[in-house]
Specification:
Largest sheet: 6 strands, mixed
Helix content: 25-40%
Order of helices and strands: EHEHEHEEEHEEHHEHHEEEHEE
Number of strands: 14
CATH topology: Purple Acid Phosphatase, chain A, domain 2
Strand order of the largest sheet: 4-3-2-1-13-14
CATH architecture: 4-Layer Sandwich
Radius of gyration: 18 Å
Length: about 300
């Protein structure tokens, strides 16, 4: 089974990323995967999300999506709240675009299962040595710097409640898989392991790191024993780790765009290529680090 994976493409409005979308599709077609995975954050605009998924659909493989935090930011102009977007709107967009929204539908191929969750954060990634009060994480603010979910998420849950809710669904999906499943691939937007997070020893960066994910999510994956591979995004820093036979990697593109409009090199770095053969992982292409570091910020 060959897999192509990417996340955090953050498509700009007004058709400014048409060439980027075309290049992503061209690169994935070149890989010719059995499974194409996108791990969240296409757009906070549901119409752009659906249009992008439709443009990226590959008819000759299975297309999988997991929503990111930007995807579920509320849209006041359309009367769409965050919870409605996660539980209904994004699933509808995926179905109409030929994608499977993994949090709604586990995907099984023979004895391999793909499970998905947006994941969330419970501040377990925070740096204790910074001694930032707990209420600052709850309010998502430190000395005037705000984590942007403060402005975009309108569900009634606290972050800890949201993490527990999404983890409960993930655990349910794992526990109810068919008996023949031997290998599991997990796809989330938020990070399941703290070791995937990059700390830079300055603020507000390391304050924001607390919003990258939750250690409890990784504990669920490790305790199952069948999870071979985990994809996530969100941090915009590509990283790969191994824990107890599980390989976890982040596969984001990010906000950068080449000033000359040549997306080929950027997209080649952004799309990871992995193969699972005889329940063994073979990593054919993965670039780590911030692939947008030297590129102009596009938003």
């Amino acid at each position: 089974m060959r897999i192509a994976a990417i996340s955090d493409v953050h498509i700009r409005p007004d058709d400014r990323d048409k060439e980027l979308i075309r290049e992503i599709k061209r690169r994935v077609e070149e890989i010719s995967p059995d499974i194409f995975v996108i791990a969240g954050d296409i757009s906070e605009k549901s119409d752009i999300l659906q249009e992008t998924l439709t443009a990226l659909n590959l008819p000759d493989c299975t297309n999988l999506y997991v929503a990111g935090n930007h995807d579920v930011w509320f849209e006041e102009s359309r009367g769409l709240g965050s919870l409605e977007k996660y539980t209904r709107t994004i699933g509808d967009a995926c179905r109409q675009s030929g994608f499977i929204h993994l949090p709604d539908n586990v995907h099984v191929v023979d004895d391999i299962a793909f499970v998905g969750s947006i994941g969330w954060y419970d501040y377990s990634f925070k740096r204790e040595d910074l001694e930032i009060p707990h209420e600052n994480y709850v309010e998502k603010e430190w000395k005037g710097a705000y984590w942007r979910d403060y402005y975009g998420i309108d569900w009634i849950y606290t972050d800890i409640e949201a993490t527990e809710l999404f983890n409960s669904k993930l655990k349910y999906d794992l526990e109810t898989l068919p008996d023949q499943i031997q290998t599991i691939v997990s796809v989330s937007h938020h990070l399941p392991f703290k070791a995937l997070t990059l700390y830079k020893d300055y603020l507000p960066w390391d304050f924001y790191s607390a919003f990258m994910g939750a250690e409890s999510t990784g504990e669920i994956l490790l305790s199952d024993g069948r999870v071979l591979l985990s994809f996530s995004g969100h941090s915009h820093i590509r990283k790969k780790i191994e824990k107890n036979g599980l390989t976890a990697m982040t596969v984001p593109l990010g906000y950068g765009r080449p000033s000359d409009g040549d997306y080929k090199s950027l997209v080649h770095d952004a799309v990871a290529e992995i193969e699972i053969k005889n329940h063994t992982l073979h990593l054919h292409h993965f670039v780590d680090g911030d692939i947008c570091e030297d590129l102009p910020y596009s938003f």
